[in-house]
Model the fold of this input.
Amino acid sequence: MKFKKIAVIFLSLLILLYNSSCDSVEGQIKNGHRYLSEKQYDKAGECFDKALKMNPKSSNGWYGKGLFQYTGQKYDEALESFSKSIEYDEKNIKPWNGKIMVYQVKSLLTPEKEKEYYEEMIKCFDEIIKIDGKNIAAITGKGNVFCSMDRYEEALKCYDDALGIDSKKVDLIAGKAYILCKENKYEEALKCYDEALALEPGNEKCNTAKKQALCGMWNKKGMDLFNEKKYKDAIKCYDEALKIDPENEESIKARNRANSEIFHTEGLTLYGKKKYKEAISCYDKALKLYEEEKTLWYDKGNALYSSKQYNEALKQYIQATHIDNKFAYAYCAMGNTYLMLGRFQEALQNYDRARECSPKDKYIQECYKNGEKEWFLKSINGFT
Done:
């Protein structure tokens, strides 16, 4: 009997404590977060409102309300609540993180204001760092925003600052390597990946990233050689990249482009020797490997034009303008071709388009004058 009385008293105390905790500001805030995690949003909102009714200056209460508004996609209202939270506790980091979440979503919803929202995110990270100078998440978060803005030097500084706090953290070393790759500093990036893998040899993400960096390094060397028109040497570099990753799309595409340019160059040589049929054959081989080069379509058009295959030539010039709709010489060539076909109005239209694209080009101006002359002669002949 005595035991039952004690049990009843103990149970009553628990109920009293529970009710008092629920009725407190912190109790309502705690329940609000629980309801948010359970996706019972209406109940969560009620809890945060009750907490703020009890204490309108509760920083955590405003933070909770901001989260509730954020989940309801009321982003401007959420920002106001997070600002209130900061107003009542300047050292509360959570509402600054809340603001960052809002700006991140806004940057995705309104890409035209992306830069503006990125700048706001950086300000928020700076405020967190003022409160906690060793907050690695804030320091690297700021670096990631800089990286998204292509401000790589500033991003690297952030990661170096973070590594100054924890030099053995693999994610930080790998993050720095990633940014170095974005700057095409592959040798430095590879050193970072080696450092990270020395700390965690079995880290699959680092191993994969290192392979990608190696491919990037060979692709970069290949592109440099390609730009110097050393196509065979470029292909050797792309082959090295493909040894590391046989399915690397960038390497495959770049290799095909380099091989295409070998055929393209051979075609230009044959064209110069007036061997138009052979030149066209080379251009076709080149186009099978890489179709995105406007000058390749243009040069094939010139070979067909010189072979008096005017309708076929037109198709090539049109394709060139599909790749670059401001390719003045392709429009001019179309004008010349329409002229040969006796389609004078279409010729003049294309000359006009060529002049719009390149107003000061003397060759295009001469072609236009010639087209006008031919049109004038046709008009006279039509009256006689």
